[in-house]
Write a structure and sequence with these properties.
CATH superfamily of the largest domain: HUPs
Shape: elongated
CATH class of the largest domain: Alpha Beta
Mean pLDDT: 91
Largest sheet: 6 strands, mixed
Low-confidence stretches: none
Number of strands: 23
Strand order of the largest sheet: 3-2-1-6-8-7
CATH topology of the largest domain: Rossmann fold
Number of helices: 14
Number of domains: 3
């Protein structure tokens, strides 16, 4: 598709809903065309939103500061506010430039500037998309990776938009020259030690010399991959909904193992990405399905995924964080407030009722503590047992046990929230009492 102002206007249709639009502006030809196009559309009244720009200064060499000055000058001419983010410590003389680290740090910087109702406009185009396809193919990416860069996706509180993805580099260059635009020529773009530059200058020209229309056929394949990925995602979402517990989002293990191995992998990949933003690669997915699941059917076990883990417990798979938050004891006067926020541990609510919970006569000042080890407790109608035994009998998940609020009064344990109360404080014979409900945090 040939780039034009009208074509850009159509590509920005979804981005118009944003209160603020931030243009990622490097000073290169692509982002210069995008910023110029957005400026013209806004001037014509076709884009009625707050326009800003952001420039990432990677701090890799002296030229970076010159580029930042250039971008400041251009934005000043457009009267568009510019934010400059300076990244530091990204270049190691012994290792050279890490392209993946640069990319991650750029997006981290973008994310820090995005607020709700904000859209980030990036100038990736059709040729960038094809280069990305080859890079991901070379590292063995799955369906999600091979589907390429998306025209829009969430980033933090905002959304990324790529309105130039339908246009090739040549068309964008022609527009830039016809508008008399100025831009930066980055010398590092000629450095073929970097993978993307190697593809751009060495590989793709050779392909084009043999197959001049390769872009058209490759984009057809990309479209087919996207369609196949959408079908896979829909199936995985339906399978996950059928297998998961609505409250805990845990997956039924036996139900999962009845699916084909391909669907098992798809469900697990979708589940981890949706609830913990963890992307499972080929090796981990096969390890989980082929080795971990058969063991998880028979016993409780764990599979670590960096900052979180998959834990099997009583027939279900749970996705939980590994880090133990700092829990702080506190005091709660339930007669003054019917709820209390717990540090790093959700919320406690007290509900009045009859014949259940802690009786009114006893209720008052509660001490909220957490398990330290060795505690004994006697639930009303039962006998004294260790907390460990009680939690096992009640089916409390191992990673939750240390976080269950314990209610003390005058130094004595009178209630385990969600488990039971002691005989001495139980609201009996229709007497009024407080039932305590723990609104759990996301584990």
């Amino acid at each position: 598709m040939k780039f034009s102002l009208d074509a850009l206007n159509q590509s920005l249709a979804d981005a118009r809903k944003c209160k603020n639009l931030i243009v990622g502006f490097s000073g290169g030809i692509d982002s210069s065309v995008l910023l110029h196009g957005v400026f013209l559309l806004a001037r014509k009244g076709l884009l009625q939103t707050n326009i800003k720009a952001i420039h990432i200064n990677h701090g890799l060499n002296e030229s970076c500061n010159q580029w930042a000055s250039f971008c400041t000058h251009i934005c000043s001419d457009y009267k568009i506010p510019l934010e400059i983010k300076v990244l530091a410590g990204l270049y190691n003389l012994s290792e050279g430039i890490n392209e993946e680290l640069l990319r991650k740090e750029r997006y981290r910087a973008f994310n820090s500037s995005l607020e709700s109702e904000s859209g980030l406009l990036l100038a990736h185009h059709k040729d960038d998309q094809l280069e990305t396809l080859l890079l991901r193919l070379n590292r063995g990416a799955g369906m999600r990776g091979l589907s390429g860069m998306q025209e829009s996706r969430p980033l933090g509180k905002g959304i990324i938009y790529r309105p130039l993805l339908k246009f090739d580099r040549q068309s964008i260059e022609e527009f830039a020259k016809s508008e008399g635009l100025e831009w930066i020529e980055d010398d590092s773009n000629a450095d073929t030690r970097m993978d993307r530059n190697f593809l751009r200058h060495e590989v793709l020209p050779q392909i084009e010399s043999r197959w001049p229309n390769y872009r058209r056929s490759w984009f057809k394949s990309l479209t087919l991959i996207n369609e196949a990925y959408a079908v896979e995602q829909k199936q995985a979402e339906e399978d996950m909904s059928a297998l998961s517990c609505e409250q805990t989002k845990a997956l039924n293990i036996r139900g999962l193992t009845r699916l084909s191995r391909e669907r098992q992998r798809a469900v697990l990949k979708y589940w981890c990405l949706k609830f913990k933003d963890v992307s499972l690669g080929w090796n981990k997915l096969h390890h989980i399905v082929d080795e971990f699941l058969p063991t998880a059917v028979m016993s409780s076990t764990n599979f670590c995924l960096g900052d979180c883990k998959i834990s099997s417990f009583r027939g279900f798979l749970h996705l939980v964080s590994i880090a133990d938050p700092e829990l702080v004891d506190c005091v709660w006067d339930v007669s003054q407030s019917d709820e209390i926020t717990l540090a790093n541990n959700g919320l406690l609510k007290a509900k009045e009722g009859e014949g259940e919970g802690i009786c009114f006569e006893t209720a008052g000042l509660f001490e909220i503590r957490y398990r330290r080890g060795g505690e004994m407790f006697r639930i009303a109608g039962g006998r004294s047992k260790s907390l460990k035994k009680i939690f096992q009998e009640k089916g409390v998940e191992p990673w939750v046990r240390s976080r269950v609020p314990l209610i003390y009064q005058d130094g004595k344990l009178i209630s385990i929230v969600g488990v039971g109360v002691s005989e001495e404080v139980q609201a009996k014979n229709g007497r009024k009492g407080y039932s305590l409900d723990w609104i759990k945090p996301r584990f």
